[in-house]
Amino acid sequence: MRMNEGVEWAVHSCLNLAWLGEDRAVPAARLAAFYELPAAYLNKQLQALTRAGILTSVPGPKGGFRLARPIAKITLMDVVAAIDGEEEAFRCTEIRFRGGSGGGRTPANPKPCTVASGFRKAEMAWRRELAARTLADITSEVERTNPGAPDRVRRWFDDNR
Amino acid sequence: MRMNEGVEWAVHSCLNLAWLGEDRAVPAARLAAFYELPAAYLNKQLQALTRAGILTSVPGPKGGFRLARPIAKITLMDVVAAIDGEEEAFRCTEIRFRGGSGGGRTPANPKPCTVASGFRKAEMAWRRELAARTLADITSEVERTNPGAPDRVRRWFDDNR
C-alpha cells in the first residue's frame, strides 16, 4: 500500500512557500526545478492543493502558487487528503453477506462488520496523528535542526526567478 | 491509497478456519465458494498467508489450508503484512537533497527528514492498532454480537465438502 509520491513533493513545496513568505507566488516550474521534479506532474499536485484550499493560484505574468492560509492551519492530513484522497485504506466489501454466509441477502440495517471496525480504528489512529502534525510544527523543527535551510531556499528562489 | 482487497478475504477466511476447528484443512475452492470469490485469486492470498506462517498447506486429497497457529497469536497486522506487504505507505525519496536544496549531494549521515518522521509516527500508530487486534478478539466479538455465525459457517462447510 503506497501513498501517492506527490504527497512528499506537495509537503516540501508548501514548506518552501512558507519560507519564501506568504505573499510570494511561485510558478509551478520553479517549485519543480528546486527539486528537479517533473513540472507538469507537480503542477497537477499544486492544482489539487489549490482545490483543497491549501494554496491559491495567482494568475498573470507574476503569478504562480502561494499559501492560502498560515501553515499552522495546514496539517499533514490536509495534504494527504488533497493529494491522495480521503478514502479509507481498508475497503469493506461486505463479503460476509455473500454466498454461504449471508445467502446473498444483505440485511436492511446490518451491524458494523467486526473486521472492518478493527481496520477503521487503526486508520483513525493514523489520521489523528497526521491531523495533529501541522506544517508549522515541521518548519519549527527544521529551523532548529537545520537552521541554514530557510535561507538556502530563499537564496535559490531569488537567484532562479 | 488502498489496501489490497485480498486482506478482507484473508481475514474472513482465517475466521472461518477458526470456527471449523484448527485441525480441519479446507481447499481454497471451498473457502472461495463460501463468499463467491474467485478461487485462483483467493488461493494466491492463502499461499501468501502460508508463506507468512499464518496458515499451513496440507497436501493430498483431504488437503487444503488450515491455521498454523492459534488465532490469539494472529493479528490484523500479521495478515496485512502477509497480503499487502510491509512497506511503509509514505515513501521518503529524499527530494530534499535534490536540485536547489542539496545541490544533488546526499550527506553521508543525514539527519532524518522531518517530513518523513511525521509520516512515520502516524504510520506506527496505525500499525500499533493493527498489531493490538487479534483474530481471537474478532471471533469473540462476532460470537457476542452474532451468536449464530459460527454454526452457520460449520453447517455450510459440512454441507459443501
TrEMBL record, chains A, B:
InterPro entries linked to this entry: TR_Rrf2-type_CS, Tscrpt_reg_Rrf2, WH-like_DNA-bd_sf, WH_DNA-bd_sf
Protein name per the record: RrF2 family transcriptional regulator
Organism field: Saccharopolyspora griseoalba
Lineage: Bacteria, Bacillati, Actinomycetota, Actinomycetes, Pseudonocardiales
